[in-house]
Amino acid sequence: MADLITTATAKDEADRNAPVALLPVGSFEQHGNYLPLATDTIVASVIAQQLAQQYRAFVLPPVTISCSHEHAAWRGTVSISARTLHGVVTDIAESLVASGVGRLVLVSGHGGNYVLGNIAQEASVSGPRIAVFPQGEEWHQARSDAELETDGHEDMHAGELETSILLAFCPEVVRPGNETADWTATDRPHLLTLGIAGYTKTGVIGRPSLGSAAKGAAVVESLVRTFAPVYAILTQQPGSDG
């Protein structure tokens, strides 16, 4: 997994002269008994690395702890506040501008980081500067392209999608148990108040038994394709650095 954190030198990045930076934003939270606490960080880092193979982009090291308060019932989960995450990400964006990279993509591996959308909106008032990727439509397209059997609502957490991506790119971190861990909880009206524990005893909401490496590879391949419009928006605007 060491290749998920950039080892580029300053000269490497000067030569690359990328117009866009990619900041993987993950989390450190429970993912059942078979996926690591760092699952969302691994997913975000995998996506960022694959994007950088197709697009000229500067991959940053990931934000590894974020807003996982809905998972607090499980030992091992660690969170920071939304205001802290807002401050960290905006500080990173400002630092990038100072070093000559004026466009940033927040590669989101954790759906609970709602504040990332606010950050992008605030920063882009005067023109596209920050984007969040993937979002709902890109995830939906990726599920379709990879022929996943579940949708994003049914397969909310530690299910078919996340298990597949880790099986494809970091199979060594997936422990036995996903084959028998399916848990259905499609009716979750008070999730923000009750947290995940209000709807699952295992920490899983989804069907991890359906996960496969082939599906995970196809999901990420789809995301690389659907990133093209986001990259174009950020790089084709007047005043951009590309």
Please tell me about this protein's structure:
Helix content is 39%, strand content 8%. The protein is built from nine helices and four strands. It has one domain: 3-Layer(aba) Sandwich (Rossmann fold). It is globular and about 50 Å long. It has 242 residues and is of the alpha/beta class. Strands 2-1-3-4 form a four-stranded parallel beta sheet, sandwiched between helices. Helix 6 packs across helix 8 (213-226). The model has no long low-confidence stretch (mean pLDDT 96). It has helices at residues 10-16, 39-54, 82-98, 115-123, 136-145, 160-169, 191-194, 213-226, 228-235; strands at residues 20-25, 57-59, 103-108, 130-133.
- Tally of DSSP β-strands: 4
Structure annotation, total helices: 9
* CATH C-level label: Alpha Beta
Stretches where pLDDT falls below 50 for ≥5 residues?
Answer: none
Shape: globular
Structural class: alpha/beta
Q: Between the first and last Cα atoms, what is the distance in angstroms?
A: 30 Å
Radius of gyration: 18 Å
Mean pLDDT comes to 96
Strand order of the largest sheet: 2-1-3-4
The third-level CATH topology is: Rossmann fold
What is the number of independent domains?
Answer: 1
Helical content (DSSP H or I, runs of 4+): 25-40%
Sequence of secondary-structure elements: HEHEHEHEHHHHH
CATH superfamily: Creatininase
Strand content: 5-15%
Do you know the CATH architecture? Answer: 3-Layer(aba) Sandwich
Largest sheet geometry: 4 strands, parallel
